[in-house]
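From the shared-data thread, chain only:
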Amino acid sequence: MDVWQKELIIGLLLFLAVSVVGGMTGLFMPLALVLTLGMLMHQLYQINRFERWIRTGGRAKYPKTSGVWEEIYYHVYRIKKNEKKRKKKLGKMVDQFRQSTEALPDAAVVLGANDEIEWANKAAREVFGLQQSDKGQRIPNLIRFPEFIRYLKSGNYSEPVILPSPVNNRITLAVRIIAYGAGLRLLLAQDVTQLKKMERMRKDFVANVSHELRTPLTVLKGYLETLQDMDDGESPLLTTSFQQMQGQTERMQHLVDDLLLLTRLETQQKKTECINVPALLSQICKEAETIHGKASASSATAPALLYLPHPCSRAHAPYLHPVGNLPNRIEARIELSLESDVNIMGDEQELRSAFTNLLGNALKYSPEDSVVKVRWYRSNDSIVLDVEDQGEGIAAADIPRVTERFYRSEVKRIKKVGGTGLGLAIVKHVLMRHDAKLNITSELGKGSRFSCHFPAKRVCH
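Structure, as tokens:
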């Protein structure tokens, strides 16, 4: 029988006894009051015993009793016992975690909601110079590099911050913060000294080799031009050989120039000024039209078209504006839509190089009778340059890799397209230096769109 049923039966039997005795003696009310007070005093006594047992943490054996109170003591005791087992098991897991993280070669620091140190492993104590007594101290008070403090306050931990070790400036650390739990964060620091050293050696090697190649290339190019001038055309083999040698020399020259540009982008400090992007794009398009016009065999003449904002109201659609008579129909391939006159802070030469590469690729990888659209406009939270072509397109698997150096997608082409394979790598580095992102959307056989998104903080007047 359930303990609560027993308690109920006992209470009913006591009430029945009081009713019988009270009916025989005429003292039902006094006897019922005495019974009620007795039961109340008994419950108060049991509650007092239970409170004293709980006050001590419930560690001792629970008091002897009966009825429902015995069940209450037993259930609480069992809960406390299970909790103790779980706490012991959790403690073992925490100890194992700390032992494993102590053995990690990377530094690990657990930070609280207010950036205070809650725990640090051995590697963290070595590379950051932390002590056991630093527990509870705020990490910005101990690691005082401005880059790290800005990174900590920014809340954007998608990319690591690179900084020297506070105890040894010859050690370079890549510090990353991972948020977890309720306001807790895990700071991880990896020693990237060797990686940075190898990267620096690679940059120096590329820069030195590129510089050393420029002189012999200049000499070869000069002698080839002299030999071509001396060629009387009587030997087709000799003429063809000179032309091929000249083409390969120019290709090598472009490759060296692109490598030197990439090296400068990776090593030189950023220079910023307010750039008139609409004027820059107009100039780039005119230059591209002229260059591709000379390469075309067409003899027709047509004015190139620029799309400019309506002079009266920016809410109106763009209108066609002739730039001038250019030599052939290839120039009309470029449609420039300037939907905003916004300027941005940056380096003009770097932006010129990036925009020229995007436009050159669009013209190079699309049919000569197709249109390449260049659009400069302002979206909700960024300023965007779109370069859209109707060319061969890029396979979805190749899109993530086209900005790698020397990577070229495997597409069967009717004619061979020359290039160094560094154009989009240059674009990516320029955009990174301008806090911008490159988005690529493409479909095989239908064309591609390259979108450069500049943050609104780059806007200048």
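DSSP finds ten helices and 15 strands in the chain.
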